[in-house]
Specification:
This protein is mainly beta. The chain is built from two helices and 19 strands. The N terminus is likely disordered.
Length: 318
Amino acid sequence: MYSIVVASFSVLVFSLSAAAQSGGGLFPPTLAGPPGRSLLRINSEYVGDQGLDDSESYHSHQHSVTTMPAGSGLFLSAGYGQTKIKQEPLVLEDGVEVDNNLKSMLFQVGWAQAVTQGSTWSAQIGFGANSDRPFERSDDDAYTVSLMNLRPGTTGRWILGAFYNSNFGFGDFPVPIIGYLYSPSKKFNLIVGAPFVRLSWGGFVGTRLTMGVSPGGASAGLSQSVLGPFAIEARWSWEVENYFHEARLDEDDQFYIQKQQALIGLRAPVIPGGMLRIYYSYRYNSSYYQAESQFDRPEQRFELRDSGGLSTSLSLSY
């Protein structure tokens, strides 16, 4: 059961991690306790696309997360993300200019330990920045703290805890987390809680369906194994990235990028412990704007041209 829990939440955290990497994500990496039993885990992704001509804005995003144990239940995690919009500068409705190269960095220390039969406690603290000028203003730095407890239920596990991220896109307050993982078999996992839902189902041989939603985004994916370890995958996501922009006139304002994306491609092992994914991605219904919260109605919303391009992802686990 422990391995199912870790695997389920690892998929949950990383499938919605675009928002997390840019400061608006909901889920801490300690949500499932330890980040897995591997000595080193690296996940890196690049998504790029281009408009129909050079005068149109296009968007690229890359992020990488590395996690490794440090002994006695401790583990370290470092993440870096970069989003670029080909339009310089980005001028908002109040004349404020935002650098078109936005960065997110997050360094974390976590601890996880099974304290009683079937019960696991975990904690995490983190420091980083999500800005067009990272670490140039202390007010723009991001802090994260989480405390989680997983305990046995009748047919699964209860998830209890709280998570705080100073760069939330919907308020500067701790978020209580309560949920239940129902996992009757390795083929079916359902996580229902506040404020998230996650489903993973493998009803047919070689097929896996996943869906998830939280305030930071939503995702769905379908994979079908072909020719042994190779698989065809299709994914859809809705994501909101948020950054503190240095030139803002109101300290509470943040710069948001909202996007939807569909991807289809191939998953293949390339080296022992390594998995490569190559997709064609199509980004649509995307925009950027300035607001105090991702749920506020902005004064003006600036559209990004729909466009497609290449997406690659490499995961290493040792």
